[in-house]
Structures are given as C-alpha cells and as structure tokens.
C-alpha cells in the first residue's frame, strides 16, 4: 500500500520558475579545461533544499560520476530582484537522459553546502511569489 508520505521526500516546497544559473562541475578526481568552465543554465524549479536545473553536460560519461557523488555541481542562482547570487554546493539526486545533439540534461540537485542566509533568501522569495498580488 502506498501512502502520501511515499510520494514526496522533500523537506521544502519548490516553486516552478525559470531562474538563470551559473554552474561549474567540481571533482577532486578530475582535471582539465572542462572542469574549469563556468556554464549557464536555467532552473525549472527552485526550493530551499535544492533545484531542478537544465544543464549542458560537457561529457555524457560525467552523468555516472554525478550520480555516484564523484562529482558535484557548484551553483550561483540569481533570484529576480536580488543583488547577489545564491551560492551552493550541490549533489545530483537524479537526472534525465542526455539529449543527443545538445548534450543537455535535467539534474535534480540537492544543496549540500549553503549558508542559512541564502537558504532563508530562497524561502522568502518562494513565500512572496505565492502571495496574491
């Protein structure tokens, strides 16, 4: 029997919104120019616990490294009406298949390291976005 508790394991609600993200792949095991590149992507949703990122994957073999925590994703998220980006170190919880020609993938990211101030800014933004105007 499935209960409502089985469906959702997130601690925080997510807001479906497209927000620009600058991100970088990080690994202690890997080196090279691709590891130094800062990419630009967009969220499909965001919450105080993580985000859903449409990202370009330089190498399809990186997906297994992301899913086994041999590689992390550093993100800088610029919320609307914000001066400074939200910075977080994230791990990949799940992903979609890599699209053949574009090398894009959707990554479900969970923040591993984020300041309480930045987490609070995300929470405040989500609350304000849901309030009637």
Structural class: alpha+beta
Inertia-based shape: globular
Alpha carbon gyration radius: 15 Å
Class, according to the CATH hierarchy?
Answer: Mainly Beta
Stated plainly, the CATH topology is called Thrombin, subunit H
What is the percent of helical residues?
A: 10-25%
DSSP, total strands: 7
Tally of helical segments: 4
How many domains would you count in the coordinates?
A: 1
Distance N to C terminus: 41 Å
CATH homology group: predicted glycosyltransferase like domains
Global mean pLDDT? 88
Low-confidence stretches: 1-7
User: How do the strands line up in the largest sheet?
Assistant: 2-3-4-7-6-5
Major pleated sheet: 6 strands, antiparallel, barrel
Any guess at the CATH architecture? Beta Barrel
Strand content bin = 35-45%
Description:
By secondary structure, this protein is an alpha+beta fold. The chain has a single domain (12-130), classed as Thrombin, subunit H (Beta Barrel), CATH 2.40.10.220. Helix content is 22%, strand content 39%. It has helices spanning 4-7, 33-36, 62-67, 116-130; strands spanning 14-15, 20-26, 39-47, 50-56, 72-77, 86-95, 104-114. The chain has a six-stranded antiparallel beta barrel with strand order 2-3-4-7-6-5. A hairpin with an 8-residue loop joins strand 6 (86-95) and strand 7. It is globular. Mean pLDDT is 88; it is low at 1-7.
Descriptive key words:
alpha+beta, 133 residues, Thrombin, subunit H, single chain, six-stranded antiparallel β-barrel, globular
List the helices and strands and how they pair.
Elements: H1 4-7, E1 14-15, E2 20-26, H2 33-36, E3 39-47, E4 50-56, H3 62-67, E5 72-77, E6 86-95, E7 104-114, H4 116-130
């Amino acid at each position: 029997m499935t209960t409502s508790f089985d469906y959702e394991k997130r601690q925080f609600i997510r807001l479906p919104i497209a927000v620009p993200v600058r991100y970088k792949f990080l690994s202690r095991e890997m080196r090279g120019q691709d590891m130094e590149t800062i990419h630009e992507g967009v969220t499909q949703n965001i919450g105080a616990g993580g985000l859903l990122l449409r990202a370009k994957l330089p190498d399809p073999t990186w997906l297994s490294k992301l899913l086994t925590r041999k590689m992390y994703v550093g993100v800088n998220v610029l919320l609307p009406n914000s001066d400074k980006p939200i910075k977080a170190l994230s791990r990949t919880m799940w992903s979609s298949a890599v699209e053949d020609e574009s090398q894009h993938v959707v990554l479900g990211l969970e923040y591993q390291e984020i300041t309480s101030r930045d987490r609070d800014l995300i929470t405040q933004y989500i609350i304000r976005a849901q309030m009637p105007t």
